[in-house]
Amino acid sequence: MIQHLQDTTTLHNGVKMPWFGLGVFKVPDGDTVVQSVKAAIINGYRSIDTAAVYGNEEGVGQGIKEALDETGLSRGDLFITSKVWNDDFGYESTLAAFETSLQKLGLDYLDLYLVHWPVEGKYIDTWRALETLYKEGKIKAIGVSNFNIHHLESLLKHAEIKPMVNQVEYHPRLTQKELHEFCKEHGIQLEAWAPLMQGGLFDHPTLQEIATNHQKSVAQVILRWDLQNGVITIPKSTKEKRMIENASIFDFELSENEMKQIDALNENHRVGPDPDNFDF
């Protein structure tokens, strides 16, 4: 039972990763992202998820630095994720992209580095670069993002080290049951992006009813559902009040029946691109 904002799950290589974190997709670089990251860490968050393509790694790094100065925490208390963008795929270019990300973040290692999308014909070489960086101790854990089962199967055939994490779009309208089962069988931790379906579920009657029963918000119910399903979740917010609310989900539990009601909302509906059909 996950009872605290700083509770962790142990990845298959023994690294501990927080169940809950802050995502910064579409948060502009500069003061907005600096203050968001800082507020999250000050309010108990320990995991921050960014990516090269978000264009805000410098601000994330600045927010981390200011938060550490202010709280007296050390770098080892935090779990920082970034991702290599599709344009940088390939062995050498991935190694270079990683160094650029590290420099922008102002860090000397990353906790987790992900292959951002399964670009056909390119992700195997990119994965080899992640394995190299992992062996060199520059990354504590490596993983993928937006990989479907067949992408994972193809990767596992070539991989020396299997991914520790697969970060995918995951919410009550897209429950990814088969993918989740496959990941569990292979010891790959599932992580949710767009867990709140970018706000598209807040007026859903089933979720509203469950929220009322627990005197919680719909967002809190969905995030709790993630955790009870064993899925790491990284909701995005730039407002401190909302960050605190999102993280206030450790004082209630959804019943088995409520979990089933939420599972039943699945329509295989995506708000983001389809990993089998994207052109970037």
UniProtKB/TrEMBL annotation:
Substrate binds at residue 116. One of its GO terms (molecular function) is oxidoreductase activity, acting on the CH-OH group of donors, NAD or NADP as acceptor. The keyword Amino-acid biosynthesis does not apply. It comes from Heyndrickxia oleronia. This is Glyoxal reductase. The keyword Cell membrane does not apply. Keywords: NADP, Oxidoreductase. Residues 29-267 form the NADP-dependent oxidoreductase domain. The record marks 83 as: Lowers pKa of active site Tyr.
